[in-house]
Design brief:
Elements (H helix, E strand, L loop, with lengths): L1 E4 L16 E4 L4 E3 L3 E2 L6 E2 L1 E6 L2 E4 L4 E6 L2 H7 L1 E2 L2 E3 L8 E6 L5 E3 L4 E9 L27
Length: about 150
């Protein structure tokens, strides 16, 4: 996969050869504010921050890049983030991190913030029909399989 870096950006890298994802690092110091609940209401404002990584990738056709939360940040710090990078996109990867916790989370320049996982992506043709085939599950949705 071809990668181009803006000035100050860090190259994607794997900690271990068999890792599924490439770690992406922040090129700047940033603070992700905590989630806050408004007094006397049930409204909550999720703390979020967008980080421009300065990383550009050329994902091969037939693949997609998935931005996935780092499990350590998720479990230990309540930080999550998700995203999709299409194979034709070559702009800088921007990461939106959400802080679901009660305290701000600081990231220093060079800290790992998310991982990029490259996976095959099927794109079947869309066929509009008046009805779908019958299946065992049908329209049974959330909770339909029990506890």
């Amino acid at each position: 996969m071809k990668v181009a870096l803006d000035k100050g950006a860090f190259a994607p890298e794997k900690a271990y050869a068999d890792d599924a994802g490439y770690d992406l690092r922040t090129p700047v110091r940033v603070v992700v504010p905590p989630t806050q609940v408004c007094p006397n209401s049930f409204d909550a404002y999720v703390g979020e921050t967008v980080i421009d990584t300065g990383i550009h990738v050329e994902i091969p056709k037939g693949y997609v890049g998935l931005l996935k939360s780092k499990s350590g940040l998720n479990i230990k710090n309540d930080i999550i983030g998700e995203g999709v990078i299409d194979s034709g996109y070559t702009g800088s990867i921007k990461v939106k991190l959400y802080n679901m916790g009660d305290f701000p989370k600081e990231f220093d320049r060079g800290d790992k913030i998310i991982q990029l996982v490259i996976v095959p992506c099927l794109s079947p043709e869309i066929e509009i029909v008046s009805a779908l085939d019958d299946t065992e599950r049908g329209e049974k949705g959330f909770g339909s399989t029990g506890r």
